[in-house]
Design a protein that fits this description.
It is built from eleven helices and 14 strands. The chain is α/β, with parallel strands linked by helices. The mean pLDDT is 95.
């Protein structure tokens, strides 16, 4: 059985190729049971165990095991750990074991960039990153793969962490700078991409300029919010998958439960966009909102690409 560590997975998944692999994965489809989501009491902030299987007819079977421990930052440990196991579809024999956090970070960022290729304005040049973790860093590279960004602003609750992330991105050739005023930065951005574990909204819909694209990545439970109700009222709504977002994404589930909008306001998911059954953005003046919670079809597509690249 092959084993790919974090560096090998990253090297095997450059964003242009990964985004196209995800696009093809959504076009082709796969069997993707709703992920198994378990809460683990820790004595502090509850942890989460996720089990995410997927398989394609005539192809391999994959399953990802992920733990999310929000308090790990105090222990100088990453919040997310996991592994991805790929098995032969005909025999069930394990064929590859891949580093889960790297696979997750890159496919998550690639999914946002894939959505932006349909939903962000073609002339979008300014990106605001809200968050300073691993996913935020990957989002900068992924969005840069689908839009020729001329400015990347980085905001975080910790100004020191925002400055450090901006410095890393600049050293990697991206036009990044830290910002302190979130409202001003959001009002100026063409794309606002949020990757936080916030339980209260950070982005106010009235801040967004006409034609902006709001990309919400961080919240993965019904109790997490990155944008307020005015954002979902104002925007055209899109999700990665209806099954996942309508059950797990707080930015969709919470206002939907309270009657802020109805389920038919969610226009399309990535299956619809990638298969061309929905056109995505149709006006330069629209505000679009994409909410992702992750789906195992992305993991499977990414793992297959990584193994084939090796």
């Amino acid at each position: 059985m092959r084993q790919l560590d974090a560096r090998q997975v990253a090297d095997a998944l450059p964003y242009p190729g990964l985004i196209e692999a995800l696009r093809q994965g959504f076009r082709d489809g796969a069997t993707v049971p709703l992920r198994s989501h378990h809460t683990i009491p820790t004595g502090g902030t509850d942890a989460t165990l996720l089990l995410m299987p997927a398989w394609a007819e005539g192809g391999p079977v994959g399953v990802k095991i992920v733990t999310v421990y929000p308090d790990n930052g105090a222990r100088a440990l990453p919040a997310i750990h996991g592994l991805y196991l790929l098995l032969d579809g005909a025999t069930g024999v394990p064929t590859a074991l891949l580093d889960g956090p790297t696979l997750t970070a890159r496919r998550t960022a690639a999914a946002s960039a894939l959505a932006a290729s349909y939903l962000a304005r073609a002339d979008a040049r300014e990106l605001l990153l809200v968050g300073t973790g691993v996913i935020a860093e990957q989002l900068a590279h992924a969005h840069a793969a689908v839009r020729p960004l001329t400015r990347i602003s980085v905001w975080g609750r910790s100004g020191e962490k925002a400055a450090a992330l901006a410095a890393r991105l600049a050293a990697e050739g991206l036009p990044a700078d830290p910002v302190a005023d979130l409202q001003a930065a959001a009002s100026a951005a063409d794309i606002v991409s949020c990757a936080t574990l916030s339980s209260t909204p950070l982005i106010v819909g009235d801040w967004l300029r006409g034609g902006a694209h709001l990309d919400l990545v961080g919240g993965f439970t019904p109790h997490m919010r990155e944008a307020d109700d005015s954002a979902v009222r104002r925007a055209r709504l899109f999700v990665d998958t209806r099954d996942g977002a309508l059950k797990e994404a707080g930015d969709i589930v919470d206002p939907l439960r309270r009657g802020v909008f109805s389920e038919d306001r969610v226009e399309a998911d990535l299956y619809d966009l990638c298969r061309g059954t929905h056109p995505g953005r149709t006006s330069d003046g629209d505000v679009t909102l994409f909410k992702s919670v992750g789906t195992a079809i992305e993991d499977l597509a990414a793992a297959r690409l990584a193994v084939s690249a090796g």
